[in-house]
Amino acid sequence: MRMIQFKRYIVPIVVVILFMTAIYLRLYSLEQPFEPVQGWNAGHYMVIAKNFDSYGWLNPVSYENILHFSVPPFYSWIMKISISFSKSELFARFPSVIFGLLSIAIIYIIGKELYNKKFALLSSLIFALVPMHLLMSKKVLVDISMLFFMILSLYFFIRFYKKNTHMDLILSSFFLGLAILTKQPSAGLIFIYLFIIFKHKKEQLKTSITIILTLSLLPFILLSISQPGFLSSIKTEGSRIFIFPNQTAEIAVYGLSPLIAIFSFIGLYHALKQIDWRTEIITLWFIIYFIFFAVKMPSGHMHYLIPVIPATVFLSVIFMEKLMKSFRIVILIILFASIIFTDIIVLKAMYSYDNRFVELRNFMMPRLNRDSKIFLISDGGAAPLVAYYMNRTVRNIYPGRSDPPSFVINHAMPIDYYHFDGASNETLNKISSGYLITSPSGMPENMKIWLSTKKLLKRIEAKPIDIWVMSVQPQSIEIYEV
């Protein structure tokens, strides 16, 4: 009798432990300094959020002294609200953590609406532990927030399909509009929704198209009208296409965990065999966003995998439900053991942090005043973090520009923060006085020769990139302790 009671409670206990593990891993070490690996976004969005005070909420001014619309500004607005409580690493990461945790609950609700409680529980549990979602929920990145609004939109669309209530379609379109205002790839849901309505609800096609297109695109359109530079900036900054097949496969395997990646493709096969409106939504989502991830992902931008995750999870569970008819306990143990093992590998590799930028700030801030110039000759990924930790928000021009951008002139911005990446001899000669912050690895030969004439003030050692602080004015060196 006692054994029966023990077996009755063992599954709920294990489920609670797994969910608590997923929550703990998302909350662990949020207050740590921004990591140099993939730290560009953290500094970039923090700088933009801080600049709203000076240049208005419709002007996302980045560390480059320009309006930065590679993505719409909604995430930066959320970031601004968060850091208004405290300009710290913890509150900068807070939106991703909250949206990441809420997404787990929404995946459960969607799974229940699509199939049943068992499907919902397994889907939400796997989703909670998928390595890439777990990792990116700890980072200052726009993609987790975008995905939250995407799946919230999907939930209300499913309710609309099942209950034929226009209010659900209105809510679905509204949250899709917020998703698009967060990041453009979420617009792919429009095609999925229109396909489902055209195939299954033709009698509501006209009304549905009006609601979906109006509400989902209206915020985007209003922003384009209020800020004329928005669309042109997106066209130039968001239109690159890269193909890195080896990297794409590696990120997909480790980002999803190997078994989930395999199960999802087998699940896709089974979903296509038993096609209905539910599997149509899941397979269309998977195909559209996996193609986007495989074709559009620039090198190192592993967060492009994020929109693929919900469909991947649902497809893997479709296959697992068939597999578990014979090997239920064994399959679950192997699956979750492999996911957690992959979590540990991914977090150890990609959630590294150190104090290099804090050390840089502590060394430099006593030596700087408002007129001090900082010259950054480093890989571009360090630029926003240097700007953030040095409390410099709009201090940057690119090499080759003899004049600052018009936006800088119109807003009378100070230009005392420079970024010279791959600078020419002519550009280097323009640097007359100030501080150099450089990483000497991978520098062109002309830079190495030029740097050899400068005096090293401090070397901050950290992997994978050391930071050197140097002085352009040799005569001022003796006042500092090297």
List keywords for this structure.
2 domains, single chain, disordered C terminus, 20 helices, globular, 482 residues, mainly alpha, 5-stranded mixed β-sheet, 63% helix
Question: How would you characterize this protein structure?
Answer:
With 482 residues, the protein is mainly alpha-helical. The protein folds into two domains: 21-350, no CATH class; 356-479, no CATH class. The chain is 63% helix and 5% strand. It is built from 20 helices and five strands. It has helices at residues 2-27, 40-55, 74-83, 89-114, 117-129, 131-136, 142-163, 166-182, 188-200, 205-226, 229-237, 245-256, 258-273, 277-296, 309-350, 356-364, 383-389, 406-410, 425-429, 445-451, and strands spanning 374-377, 417-419, 435-438, 455-460, 467-471. The chain has a five-stranded mixed beta sheet with strand order 2-1-3-5-4, covered by helices on one side. A hairpin with a 6-residue loop joins strand 4 and strand 5 (467-471). The longest helix is centred in the last third of the chain and has 42 residues, at 309-350.
Give a quick precis of the structure.
With 482 residues, this protein is mainly α. It contains 20 helices and five strands.
SSE pattern, N- to C-terminal: HHHHHHHHHHHHHHHHEHHEHEHEE
Largest beta sheet: strand ordering: 2-1-3-5-4
User: Roughly what percent helix?
Assistant: 55-70%
Looking at how many chains there are and whether they match, the oligomeric state comes to: single chain
**Helix tally?**
20
Q: Approximately how much beta-strand content do the residues carry? A: under 5%
Number of domains: 2
* Main sheet: strands, sense, barrel: 5 strands, mixed
